[in-house]
Amino acid sequence: MGKLSFLAGAAVGYVLGARAGVQRYEQIKSISSKVWSSDPVQNQVEKGKEAARTQIAPAVAEAVSSAAKTTAEKLRSEKTVSSEAVAPTMETRVETAEAIHEGDPLEPPTTDPKA
Prior knowledge:
mainly alpha
């Protein structure tokens, strides 16, 4: 029921807005521009910017710093893979790559399993 009401309201708003035309749009745009430029609104905008700089930004920086430290500690505490375990894996990859690149690269691979 909620979605149906929303769609009906949107449709009515669209039809009424389309009938109002460009002239009404320009009127609304002009009024909203005047309101945005008014001193009371701009004073509140400046207060919001100042609050973001002095209160919110330090809190966000602290949260990011804390998360980075936690992640770094977690990564340091996990087991690392020994170089002995990596060497055979790399050798297998090189052998596989060599096998893939054998033959003429311009000819398609044979589908015959005996070839």
